[in-house]
């Protein structure tokens, strides 16, 4: 199943979230049986009272995101699922309902627990960062359950928080987190701090493909560049298995004009030659300064590229003038 309507490759800067209602007042009578069925399912799923009322209200109002979620959670044998970023922003219904199915009081078998799901894309096509300053922060609980799927091999996700994944709050049931089957992980345009990303990566022991996309404001960017060792150490823990590595670091648009990147030569020393620590690396994509460091030393490709490398993409990111 794929419900995606914005192509990240199009590079459009003006992206609007599709409305979840389409002349529902006129269509309600035609789909009254669907409305009755969907509301009965929500009632029988034993949601907490406050969420039960919210779900029922959204269904009565004809919210297409709510109806799509109810449909998806009836597909018990689903193997692949791609959901647009607007699902994340529009209440995060799929993640919330799956959270209830795995951790809540839903009767067994009523809502799918996606025991056969191998590939998930949950909002990884998050749009250009121009939207970031105007969005309402989504519910963090919607991100948790995707990491607990027993058959998951590929996960692509825009991630707001690691609470409940790397840091278990008291209210989250202590279901064992086993990511030993996960082979490909994409963390897209996240504002997670490097230490939070490191905490997550430490729990994924057998990754073969990894993309970490970071988007920060001025201060967080400068702090990361001065002390990147936390993230680099976490990458090294998976270095023995990673064959495809991608790293990007972007600055939020609100900071671009006011922020001039000045990093001392020694500050970028930790990056230089980092790819040499990946003995199975075949492809890599990273900023130039992550390849050679932030200084201007004399260097040769053989000094910073492992002999196993077959392809490399070098990006500008924070250094557009280079």
Protein described:
The structure is a single chain. The protein has helices spanning 24-27, 32-44, 49-60, 64-72, 85-89, 93-103, 194-201, 218-226, 229-237, 253-256, 288-292, 301-304; strands at 2-3, 80-83, 119-122, 154-157, 184-190, 209-216, 244-251, 283-287, 311-315. The protein has 322 residues and is of the alpha/beta class. A 9-stranded parallel β-sheet has the order 1-2-3-4-5-6-7-8-9. It is elongated. The two termini are 41 Å apart. The model has no long low-confidence stretch (mean pLDDT 83).
Question: What is the structure about, briefly put?
Answer:
The protein is an alpha/beta fold.
Rg over CA atoms, rounded to whole Å, is 22 Å
Identify low-pLDDT runs. Answer: none
Number of helices: 12
Instruction: Please list the strands of the largest sheet in the order they lie side by side.
Output: 1-2-3-4-5-6-7-8-9
Distance between the termini: 41 Å
The percent of residues in helical segments reads 25-40%
Quick check: average pLDDT?
A: 83
Q: SSE string, helix = H, strand = E?
A: EHHHHEHHEEEHEHHEHEHHE
> Looking at the structure, what is the overall shape?
elongated
**Largest sheet composition:** 9 strands, parallel
Percentage of residues in strands: 5-15%
What is the β-strand count? 9
- Please identify the structural class as seen in this structure: alpha/beta
């Amino acid at each position: 199943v794929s419900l995606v309507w914005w192509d990240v490759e199009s590079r459009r800067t003006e992206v609007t979230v599709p409305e979840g209602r389409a002349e529902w007042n006129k269509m309600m009578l035609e789909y009254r049986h669907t409305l009755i069925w969907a509301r009965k399912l929500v009632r029988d799923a034993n949601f907490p009272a406050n969420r039960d009322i919210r779900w029922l209200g959204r269904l009565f109002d004809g919210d297409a995101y709510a109806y799509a979620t109810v449909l998806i959670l009836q597909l018990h044998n689903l193997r692949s699922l791609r959901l647009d970023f607007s699902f994340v922003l529009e209440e995060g219904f799929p993640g919330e309902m799956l959270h209830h199915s795995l951790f809540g009081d839903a009767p067994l078998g009523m809502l799918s627990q996606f025991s056969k799901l191998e590939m998930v894309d949950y909002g990884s096509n998050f749009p250009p960062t121009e939207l970031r300053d105007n969005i309402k922060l989504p519910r963090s609980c919607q991100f948790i359950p995707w990491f607990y799927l027993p058959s998951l091999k590929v996960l692509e996700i825009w991630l707001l928080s690691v609470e409940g994944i790397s840091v278990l709050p008291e209210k989250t049931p202590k279901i064992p987190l086993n990511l030993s089957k996960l082979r490909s992980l994409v963390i897209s345009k996240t504002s997670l701090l490097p230490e939070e990303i490191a905490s997550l990566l430490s729990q994924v022991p057998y990754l073969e493909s990894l993309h970490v996309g970071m988007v920060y404001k001025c201060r967080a960017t400068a702090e990361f560049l001065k002390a990147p060792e936390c993230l680099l150490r976490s990458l090294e823990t998976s270095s023995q298995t990673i064959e495809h590595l991608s790293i990007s670091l972007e600055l939020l648009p609100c900071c671009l004009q006011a922020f001039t990147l000045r990093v001392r030569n020694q500050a970028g020393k930790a990056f230089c030659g980092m790819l040499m620590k990946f003995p199975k690396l075949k492809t890599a994509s990273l900023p130039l300064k992550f390849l050679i460091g932030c200084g201007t030393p004399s260097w040769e490709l053989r000094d910073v590229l492992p002999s196993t490398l077959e392809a490399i993409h070098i990006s500008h990111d924070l250094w557009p003038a280079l």
